[in-house]
Design brief:
The chain has eleven helices and 13 strands. With 321 residues, it is an alpha/beta fold. The chain has one domain (4-315): Carbon-nitrogen hydrolase (Nitrilase/N-carbamoyl-D-aminoacid amidohydrolase, 4-Layer Sandwich), CATH 3.60.110.10. A hairpin with a 5-residue loop joins strand 6 and strand 7 (144-147). Helix 1 runs parallel beside helix 3, helix 4 runs parallel beside helix 8 and helix 8 (222-229) crosses helix 10 (285-291). The protein is globular. The model has no long low-confidence stretch (mean pLDDT 96).
Amino acid sequence: MQNLRVAAAQFQHAPGDKAANLATVRRFVEQAAANDIQIIAFPECCISGYWHLRNLSREELEELAEPVSEGPASQALMEMSRQYGMTVGAGLVEKDAAGRLYNSYVVAMPDGRFARHRKLHVFVSEYLTPGHEYTVFDTPHGCRVGVLICYDNNLIENARITALQGAEVLLAPHQTGGCASGSPHAMSRIDVGLWENRRQNPEPLAAEFHGDKGRGWLMRWLPSRAHDNGLFLVFANGVGRDDNEVRTGNAMVLDPYGRVLAESTALEDDLVFADLDASLRDRSTGARWIRARRPELYSPLTQPTGREQDTRAVRFEYGGK
C-alpha cells in the first residue's frame, strides 16, 4: 500500500431527486480536488435517497433505479473521477439486466474502471435483492479497497472476509444514527423537531448527534472493524432529516488501530479528510492477529445454527419502522 489522502462526506440527500444529489456530490468532489484527495466516499443511497424507499412500490423503485456502469449516475461519477483523477464512491438503487433491484455502491476510478458492491444485508424494501459477493479491488492509487454498506459492517464476518481478500482501506457508506432499534441500549430515534430548529437552538441536536443515538453508539463497534482487521476505514453517512428519522453525520476516517484521524462534528453537510500512513498497517494489532489465525478451528462459522433470520425480520422484529 502507498500513502494516500482520503475523504468522507456527510450530506442530507433530496429523496428521489438524483440530479440534485449528484450536484451535491459534484460540489464535494470539487472541494476534495482542491485538497488533493485521491479517494472520496459518499453515503449509502445518497444519489437515490434512502429511508423513503421503504414506502415505494416496486414500480416506483424501478423508475428510480438504473443500471450500474452504463447508467447516467454511474457515468456522472466517472466523468468526475476522470476530470479530477479521483476515485469516487456513492450509493444508489441499481436495476440489473434481469430486472432485479439492489442497494448498490458504485466506485468510479480515473483509469475508467468501475467497482460495484451490492448490499449483503438489505432491509429497507422488500423489493430489493441482497448481494452475494464481497467487493475488494485494486485502485490506481496504490491501495486495495473493500466496500461494505451500512448493516454489512455490523456483522464481524463481513469485515474479516474483506480483509482476508486483501483490502487495506474499507469504504463504509451508511445511513445511520437516529434509527429506531430493537435493542434497548443501541441508538434510537431523534426528534425531527430538533433538526428543524437547529439554527435557532443547536445544542440539543448536537447532544443527540454526539451521544448514544449517534457517535456514542458508533464508537462502541465501528473502531473494532478497523482495529481487528488492520484496515483504514472511511465512514460516510447521511446527515439531517431522512423522512421521519434524523441521520447523525459523524463522517470520519479511522486508522488500523481504530483511532480517529478526522471526524465531523457539524450539524450539516460536511467533508473530512485525512492522510493515510501505509506504514501503520503491517505491524498493526489486527494485521498481526490475522497472521496468527487457525482456520482449521473455524468451520463452525460456516454451519447454520437454525437461528438465522432474514435481515428485514431482524431489523424490524420490534416494529422499528
